């Protein structure tokens, strides 16, 4: 009788970079290993280890992330994006035959792609995905991805942002509170966080956040929900002024730096509040704040 041979477990080493792993909504973990993107399920009852490796990059892979779509808790990861020292980023997706394919290649950078930004928001209902790539050439590129068929996507470069001798180390993408207006955060070697807001299809500089004392290596957006707001308010000191309390829909940005600190930044409507407010007052104030925000965006100029 011939002996039976079976693969019980597969492993591979992870590259040593800050943005080398991502955890998808379905439990899949993607991480970069040499020139590949490796996939595995940590909750696999059979503990098989690596279940697939995505091959295509011609040099070391530096970063990886999942692309999400869906409404609130029904969001799903629909694709994977990876950036490499071969100066490209690649989109990977699962076909109906349950096979991973390289559906698109993003190429026009002059240096290694070191960081990626994909939309993270409470709800992501879109037909086209925004993807941001940051490279060692000191350039940020904004891409639009559209699904063509089961195995192919189309990508188009919408904008190139030159950081002028500064290097992007971290990117994050979301929507401004109570809107579908994209906001982009970039952290890099100048120790500041650059915020861009999209207007007429282009991201324009809006604000610079200072505080970190070394390179910024990681950024992440999250939306504060009503349940979190209630918990925070009940646990906080009652003497805290109303404008400093987290509200439902506030956008939070976490930044991590080589200065050993993580900072939390809040993006919210700037409205003064005095005394108690009833539900009608809150609704009226929210409407005015939304109008004020739209007017601010309309008045933003290219040299802001």
Low-confidence stretches: 272-279
Described by strand count, sense and barrel closure, the largest sheet is: 5 strands, antiparallel
Straight-line distance between termini: 77 Å
In DSSP terms, counting alpha (H) and pi (I) runs of 4 or more, how many helices? 2
Overall, the morphology is: globular
Level of helix content?
10-25%
The helix-strand sequence is EEEEEEEEEEEEEEEEEEHEEH
Chain-averaged pLDDT: 86
Residues in β-strands, percent: over 45%
Number of strands: 20
- State the secondary-structure class: mainly beta
> Oligomeric form of this entry?
single chain
Strand order of the largest sheet: 8-7-6-5-10
Radius of gyration: 21 Å
Protein name: 16146_t:CDS:1
Topology:
Layout: E1 21-23, E2 29-33, E3 36-40, E4 50-54, E5 61-71, E6 76-84, E7 88-94, E8 100-107, E9 113-118, E10 123-124, E11 128-135, E12 139-147, E13 153-162, E14 168-175, E15 182-188, E16 193-199, E17 202-209, E18 216-223, H1 226-235, E19 251-257, E20 262-267, H2 279-299
Antiparallel strand pairs: 1-2, 2-3, 3-4, 5-6, 5-10, 6-7, 7-8, 9-11, 11-12, 12-13, 14-15, 15-16, 16-17, 18-19, 19-20
Descriptive key words:
46% strand, 304 residues, 20 strands, 2 helices, five-stranded antiparallel sheet, mainly beta
Q: What would a concise description of this structure say?
A:
This is 16146_t:CDS:1. By secondary structure, this protein is mainly β. It has helices at residues 226-235, 279-299; strands at 21-23, 29-33, 36-40, 50-54, 61-71, 76-84, 88-94, 100-107, 113-118, 123-124, 128-135, 139-147, 153-162, 168-175, 182-188, 193-199, 202-209, 216-223, 251-257, 262-267.
